[in-house]
Amino acid sequence: MKARIPKRVYTTQFREAAVRQVIEAGRSANEVARSLDISSKTLGNWVRQARRGKPLVKRVAAVQVDETQAELSRLRSEVARLRVDNEILKRAAAYFARESR
Question: How many Å apart are CA 76 and CA 72, to the nearest integer?
Fold first, then answer.
């Protein structure tokens, strides 16, 4: 089984600084990638996106959620968890009732 390599997460500021080193400072992408300890392919993708005018981060800003929606979401997840717990307890009770006969 292969060991899984954890996914690295880079901030927008880090990405922009790396791209500026390639575009504005005229350094090669391989040189910058080596100095920052990132993949040259990753940096190449960032540079390509920047040259096309696309944002470096794909995630869209999250929609603002008011307090009632957040509370409703939290309560729904808690209800789902409690239903699973209840089902487990029912099965355990049935199992032990059969064993005690």
Answer: 6
Angle, helices 29-36/12-23, rounded to nearest 10 degrees: 140
Domain map of the chain by residue range?
9-59, 62-101
What's the predicted TM-score (pTM) here?
A: 0.52
Is residue 18 within 8 A of residue 32, CB to CB? The reply is yes
Tell whether the torsion through CA atoms of 26, 30, 31 and 37 is positive or negative.
Answer: positive
Q: Which amino acid, residue 88?
A: I
Q: Report how far residue 12's alpha carbon sits from residue 59's, in angstroms, rounded to the nearest whole number.
A: 11
Write the pLDDT tens digit of every residue in 34-85: 999 899 999 999 999 999 988 777 665 556 778 888 888 889 999 999 999 9
Angular region, 25: left φ>0, alpha ψ -120 to 50, beta rest? alpha
